[in-house]
Amino acid sequence: MKRKREEKETETAASTSSSRDDGSGSGYEVFLSFRGPDTRLTMADCLYNGLIGAGIHAFKDNEELRFGEEIEGGLLQAINDSRIYILIFSQDYASSKWCLRELARIVELSRADDEKVILPIFYYVDVDDVKLKTKLYRKALRKHKSEYGKDLAKKWKKALREVARIRGRNLKDHGYYLLIH
After folding, report:
1. Which of 82, 103, 135, 141 is the most buried (most CB within 10 A)?
2. Active site residues
3. Contacts of 24 (CB under 8 A, 6+ apart)
4. What single string gives the DSSP state of each residue in 118-148?
5. pLDDT for 29-38, tens place per residue?
6. Rounded to whole angstroms, how far apart are CA atoms 167 and 2?
7. Euclidean distance between CA atoms 91 and 29, whole angstroms
């Protein structure tokens, strides 16, 4: 089952990489979820520009948009409309309630629809950090638990652990090279 899902993810990613926006403006092919201060000017921009350059309709939010009241609706719509989710896990990803909200929604959608694919990238973190086996993400989740309650923190923990079971790209020791090979 796990191997079958990995094969499906690879096939979907490969077919999407050659697809183009149909011009209708309805939905995105790819949604990038990332912690802005960690990756916006490096990994996220590089990946986004590569996707756009390949003709892939990708969503990457802009930090300044978060000041508006309607951004949550806009982010949720972009998540709902996307087919592929690239999650860039970085050192401070779990410290962001926005990232964890996105993550929880993405996991919820991918559970309900086999056409939705999650592709995790571990950017200067290990899979064990995302699995909550180290203190890096556990510390952030403890803080969220005290600020937002036990139920929400539990939902976010479950989403993190679920995504950590998906085979992704670990860039901690190899950098961007692994993304293109």
Report:
1. 103
2. 102
3. none
4. EEEEESSS-HHHHTT-SHHHHHHHHHHHHHH
5. 999 999 999 9
6. 10
7. 26
